Amino acid sequence: REQTMKNLLQSTTQLAQAIWEHYVTPQLASGAYVAVDATCGRGNDTVWLAERCARVYAFDIQPEAIAATRKALQAAGVCSIREISHAAGVGDASAAAPAVTLIEDSHANLGTYIREPIGLIVLNLGYLPGGDKDRTTTAASILTALQAAADRLAVGSLLSVTMYWGHEAGKAEREAVLSWAAKLDRGIYHCVHTDMLNQPNCPPEILFVTRKR
Ligand code: SAM
């Protein structure tokens, strides 16, 4: 346990996941609330969510990422998967309630697909590991997604943003995300921002937002 705790504070991923775990509620386990991965990439976070939550929506703009996430889910034994692509039309994403709905579209359109209360949403910013470094998340689309997510966040639920801001677009994105959070109504939301202060080279930071009422 001591070793786990030590690693927890040295790894942004482990720290984020430890907090996420705390917010996996019976409503998420039953599917009354949905979990969202706004940037599914290689599918690591989507698999983590699908192993704990009955219903998950996962977005990415790159077909390569959607395919990688489908493969990761199948490898983890998650077989109830539906795919929706923006090009093929929106449809009713909640109709048959599969375990995971993979959506090839921007998270900026999150509000078009998700009508249910959100119990946990994770946004892991940056570019696809091993993919095209020019196709990163951007401040504009993230801000739209954040506002749509905050509006749909159920009371007691969590929104988590991991910011990799070593690259140029990441710096503007980090500024935009933090200033958005700083302006949230403190009677409704509670915001926490983590930073590994003595690490060089823009170590990843996490923003956690919870809804109080
Ligand atoms: N969570 C992922 C994982 O576990 O592997 C890693 C995510 S990666 C850092 C960021 C992803 O965001 C990339 O796959 C990229 O294609 C995706 N992305 C960029 N802009 C997007 C947008 N507007 N909507 C949805 N996904 C986007």
Can you walk through the features of this model?
The protein is built from eight helices and eight strands, in the order H-H-H-E-H-E-H-E-E-H-E-H-E-H-E-E. It has 213 residues and is an alpha/beta fold. It has an eight-stranded mixed β-sheet, sandwiched between helices. Helix 7 packs parallel to helix 8. The longest helix is centred in the last third of the chain and has 15 residues. S-adenosylmethionine binds next to helix 4 and strand 2.
Provide the descriptors you would attach to this structure in a database record.
213 residues; alpha/beta; eight-stranded mixed β-sheet; 8 helices; 8 strands; binds S-adenosylmethionine
What is the number of beta strands?
8
Strand content: 15-25%
Give the topology string: H per helix, E per strand.
HHHEHEHEEHEHEHEE
Tally of alpha and pi helices? 8
**Bound molecule kinds, no repeats:** S-adenosylmethionine
Portion in helices? 25-40%
Residue ranges: pLDDT <50 for 5 or more in a row? none
Main beta-sheet strand count, sense and barrel state: 8 strands, mixed
Going across the major beta sheet, what is the strand order? 3-4-2-1-5-6-8-7
Please give the radius of gyration in angstroms: 16 Å
